Amino acid sequence: MVHHPTSDDALSALAAALATTELRVATCESLTGGKVYRSLTGRPDVSPYVLGALVLHDTDATIKAAGVRSKIIERYGLVSDEVALAMAVGARRRFEAGIAVATTGVGVPTDARTSLPVGTVCVAVVRIDGYQRVEAALFDGDRDAICKQTVLLALDMLAEAVEAPWVHVAECWWIRT
Question: With a threshold of 0.85, does the pTM exceed it?
Answer without folding.
Answer: yes
